[in-house]
Design brief:
15 helices; globular; five-stranded antiparallel β-sheet; 27 strands; GMP Synthetase, Chain A, domain 3
Amino acid sequence: MKTMLDIINDNKNAFIKYFNSTVTYHDFIEYVNGIAAQFSMYCDKNDTVAMISENIPQFIMCEYASWKNHCIFLPLSPLDSPIEMEEKIQFIKPKIIVISSEFKDNFYNLEKYAKIIYTDPETFSKLPENFENKFLNNNHIEELNLRKKAYFELYNIDSEDVAVLMFTSGTTGRPKAAVIRHKNIYAASFIYKEWFNVHKNDVNLAIAPFFHITGLIFGISLSVISNSAIAIDYRFGPDNALKTIINNKTSITMFVATAYRSMINSWKNIPDIKKLLSSMRLWSAGGMPMPLKTENEWKAMTGKYIYMAYGLTESTSPLTLWEYPYNKKLKVYNNIVSAGKPVYYTIIRKGRDNELIANGPQVISEYYDNEIDTGNTFTVKGMKTGDIFYMDSDSYIYIIDRKKDLIDISGYKVWPAEIENVVRQDNRVEDVVVVPKKDEYRGEIPVAYVKLLNGINVDNNIKDNLIALCKLKLSKYKIPEIKFIDKMPVSATGKIKRSDIYKIIGEEND
C-alpha cells in the first residue's frame, strides 16, 4: 500500500490557495524539502514533531516535512489552555514544536520541553482585516526555513509506520492519543476520493481545522491523493467562507453542523445565494449530529442536501457516508438524520446494547502508551465506538446516542469529569455534576450543577469566580454554564448519578 508521500506529483497544478496567494504542488515540495532539512537538525527517525496553529500553509508543509524525516506528526489545538497543552507535550515528548506566532504568549512555557520554531500566519498572505484584528497580535515571527530546496533525501517509509498521533477522548472519556499509521491515512483518503469522485479539477473548501481528524483527512490528504487544490481560510467565518467559495470556485467541503447554522444565519437574506454557491457540488458534515431543522433550512436556501458522515479519530474519519449523488427523500429516523451507509471495505457490527463496532483498513489498532484503553476499545471483532446505532432495511445507519457520557460540542468530545475536577478546585464547592444541554448552534453545551458547602450563600460573585477558574484551566469551548442546586443526585450506594440530575432540577434535557 502506498503512503501519502508517494502520491504527490511534481507538477505546476495549484495546491494551496490561501487568501491572495497560491502554492503549486511543485513549490510545495520545495518548501517541504527546506523545512525537512531544518527539522533534520533536531529530530531523528521515529521522533515526534508537534504543530500548534490554525489552518495555514505551513501546517501542511510541516506535516509532510515530518514524514520526510521519518518522524511522527502531532497536530495540537491552539484552543487548548496552557495547562492542557503542557500535559500533552509532557506525555508525547516531541523533539520539535512548531507554533504559529500569534500563540507565542499562550505557549511560551513549552520552550523547556522541546525545540520551538515559530511561524507567521501572514508569511504567505496577509489575512483579511476582520481576521487580523480579531485573531492576530504583534508576534509576527517566521523561523521556518521557507527557502525552497530542490531535493531532500527521503527515508524509506512503510505503510505500517506511524504517521500521526492525534489526541482524542475516544470511547472511554480519558484523553488519549490515537496511533494513526500511513496505511490508515491512505485508506481513509482513498475511500473519500472514490466515494465522492474527487478529481484534480475539484477545489476543497477546507474549513474544518487541520488539528481535527476531519480537516486532516478530508481537507489535506483527500486533496493530495486527488491531485486537487485546497482553499484555506485560517479560521472559519461565514463571510470569509463565502468570499473563498466565490473567488476560488470551490466544489467540495466537510465540516460540523454548527458552521452550517452560522452560514444559514449569515447568508439566508443574500440575493442570488444559490447562484453564488453554484460551484459547490458537495456539502458534507461530520463530527456531530446534524439537526433536522438545519438540514431542511440548508436545502431550502441552497437547493442541496448536507451529506452526513460518521466517523471517529480512531477510524481516521470515515465509517459511514451518504450515497453520492443522493436525490431521494431525506433519510430520517425518530428525527435523527441518517449518517449514511458503511463505506468501502468497512464492516459495521452490532455489539452489546446496540453499540456500533467497526472494522476496516482506516480503523486504527491502538492508543499511544495506553494498554488498558487499547484493550478495552480494540477487540478481535473490531473497534468499539461507544455509540448506539440503528440500521434500517436499506443499510442506512442512524447514530442514536452515546454509550458513555461524552459531551459533543461542535464536534469536540468533552468528558464531564474534566470540567467537574476544575470546578471542585474552588474551596466553596461541595460537589458538582456536569451534563450536556442541547444547543441549536453547538449541538451540546456543558452545564455544571454546583452544590456549595453549607452556610455559603449563592451569589453572582461565586458564579463569576467559577467561570474565571474554568477559563484559566479549560479550553474555551469546555467552559460550562454554572447553575446552583441544593442537593446532588445520588444513588442508593451514595454515588453521584448524572442521569438523575433532571429529577433534582425538575426539568428535561430537550
